[in-house]
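In these records, each integer encodes one residue's backbone shape. Here is one protein:

___
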Amino acid sequence: MEQLDLTVFDLSPLAMWLQDFSGVKKIFEQWKAEGVQDLKQYLLEDPERLQPCLATIRTTHINKSALRLYEAENLEEIIQSFSKLHFEKVSQFKVHFFVALWNKEANCTIPAVNYTCKGKQIDIQLRANVLPGNEDSWESLLLTTEDISDYQNARRFAESIFTYSPTPLWIKDYSKIKSLFAELRQNQISNLKQHLKDHPEFLQQCFNEIKFIDINQASLNLFAAKDKTDFLNNTPRIFSIHIHQSFAEQLLQLWEGNYYQQRECTYYSTDGQIIHVLEQFNIFPQNEHDWGVIQVALTDIRERKKLENHLKYLGKHDILTKLYNRTFYTEEISRLEENSIYPVSCIYLDINGLKTVNDTYGHDIGDQLLKRIGQILNQAIADTLYTVSRIGGDEFVILMPNAGSQNVQSMLDIIQNLLDQDNQRNQDLSISVAMGYSTTRNNETIEELLKRADQKMYKKKNEYYQLRMN
């Protein structure tokens, strides 16, 4: 190298090296002679095959910036400490660097971890070029080592926050969905909702184009996945509910330009458990143009859902009998009337003598009777669309949509049969019920239907007490 070039070389603010790679060149030629054609595959099978190459590299000159970076006084100190400077094991990055040399690429670049002569770890970006006139021998390569420690430390910090965050996090690539949307707009499609209705397969197509860039440990724990591979292999199961319940809504929001979204979603874990989460979806800044980096944060709301469902259950069920309560009963009447579901039949039931049982044996025994009748009625309507509600202390109503008089008679027989079986098991305290029933007549409201059934039930009840008195 000419003296002027050395002056520029020495004064460069970037750490620069001149190294002799002729020994590497000879090893490469030997490998080729031995039949090695794919160096990448050859080295990935055993990265330690690179060690002889590393041992042949000779440093002929370094500049002042390199001495400062590696905390050395002179070239001799660098040479003496050379093996320590590259303490890290042979990495895939180094493999790619030597593969680039093998393929005669103009610019070979890799990130690497080095150590200074005083033992300080530094992250570098290594670049290498064969100097003109040395293409056949590789006797002189110009290398630069840029200190990227701050960048790498920041990256590691961000990665550690992601990896060890207690919040389940996903990083996804939606760029292919962005392209699919662009194609739709080019084809004059302006209403995505209608397009999804006309072409439901487009929803699955979009889902198939999503790429998972990374998932953290909290996500693996939430979905009971052994590792990332296990999670990705189970995505059809994990997302089977989500695709139909929430994914379409997500796409519609993206179509309208809403890049931050929050909604409750449902997934499956790898072991088949239903998982309810609050999902926060956000396209990273600087990625709005291609949707290449999207973060999804999940909050496990299963306990909240359990509480909500329990409160919802309490709002419409009678705790003692496990039947529906009067609130549900009133709403169900309104639903049947609003939807004009006819014919409708009903059966009114009232326990005979419950007050006497309570007064004689106590309310605990009376409650046992109520629980027994609840079990009987629940069993009677199993596998039907009928509902049974406890509307008073000892009053119950079965509402039977799309049911005529024959259905009513069949249900009465089932109830009586179950009642007889229960009384056989509890002969010390049998249950007697009064039942009234009816089916809607032409132009009759459900309220009128219920009134007729109620009147029949009270007639039966009066007959029961008259018989007891005689």
